[in-house]
Design a protein that fits this description.
The chain is α/β, with parallel strands linked by helices. Helix content is 39%, strand content 15%. The protein has 12 helices and 8 strands.
């Protein structure tokens, strides 16, 4: 039974980013049918929020082609909330027309990465998104994700003051959720504390979300640190699949099953079935035709 310790809430939410961030760097291109199968399996584990698509140029990210078709089919039997990631005005319009439940805008914390990823500086990106949201579509939730918040592959360390300055400017955009992304997996618990604590204080009425990559095997400890600080929403992928086509050496997301094991055995409710999650990771590994890095996929659950 879930319990409360350290004065914390006894539940948290895991957002499945497998169909988008998990697959975007995979050479094996998933068909619409295969993505629907992946999402169906995810829902069967208890997941209720899924980052299903990215409205980007398919020539640059072939795995993300035809998101409108995917979301149209998902809308037939609505079993979860679906989000789409956008980088520009065209992507935003496509996401709105596709009737996403949520739209995630990305603001990269460093100028060099932002220029390579979005063709504009961080400041220009904030201004650009601000203009898009002046005629914000009613009924669609907006998440602002600050990417490379813990480190940039081109500029190096990202200072806490940089992240908080960006977050302060984003307040005027009135997001429904603010997210910090460790895009290249460099954060340690100390970094999480230095950036998440002031962010939670700044966004006291807005949920804070964490997007962790496990490039250097620190994602689980970072998740626990953030949870102790008050973060209750975590992005993750089955099997720890993932990577970024624009960030050299960036590897997978923190694994859904690893997070479920950590929090459920610590007495907290994730709403996600661990055995079912491991089975999805096993199936996914077969689909992409290579091993996935999840610890639970290798070792399995510990039965008492």
């Amino acid at each position: 039974m879930a319990r409360v310790i350290f004065g914390m809430s006894n539940s948290l939410e895991i957002i499945d980013v497998t169909p988008r961030d998990g697959l975007q760097n995979e050479p094996v291109i998933f068909s619409i049918g295969e993505k629907l199968e992946l999402i169906s399996r995810s829902i069967e584990t208890g997941i209720s929020r899924i980052e299903a698509a990215s409205f980007v140029n398919p020539k640059k990210v072939p795995q993300m082609a035809n998101p409108e078709q995917l979301l149209d089919k998902l809308s037939i039997k609505k079993k979860a909330k679906y989000s789409g990631l956008v980088l520009n005005e065209r992507g935003y319009k496509r996401a709105v027309d596709s009737k996403c439940d949520e739209i995630t805008f990305v603001i990269v914390a460093s100028d060099e990465f932002s220029l390579r990823n979005q063709g504009m500086t961080t400041a220009q990106s904030i201004e650009y998104i601000s203009k898009l949201l002046k005629n914000r579509e009613a009924g669609i939730k907006v998440c602002i994700s600050i990417a490379a918040a813990f480190g940039c592959p081109f500029e190096g360390v990202v200072r806490p003051s940089q992240v908080i300055e960006i977050a302060e400017k984003c307040l005027d955009l009135c997001p429904d959720e603010i997210s910090l992304a460790d895009t290249i997996g460099v954060a340690i618990p100390k970094d999480v504390k230095e950036k998440v604590e002031p962010l939670i204080s700044l966004y006291s009425n807005t949920p804070v979300r964490l997007h962790l990559h496990n490039t250097r095997n620190t994602a689980i400890s970072n998740a626990w640190t953030a949870f102790e600080l008050g973060v209750k929403r975590f992005d993750a992928s089955f099997g720890g699949i993932g990577g970024c086509p624009f960030a050299p050496n960036a590897t997978g997301n923190v694994a859904i099953e690893d997070l479920v094991y950590l929090f459920e055995r610590s007495g907290f409710d994730t709403g996600v079935d661990l055995d079912a999650s491991i089975k999805v990771a096993e199936w996914l590994s077969g689909q992409v035709k290579h091993p996935l890095p999840s610890a639970l996929l290798a070792a399995g659950d510990f039965k008492i």
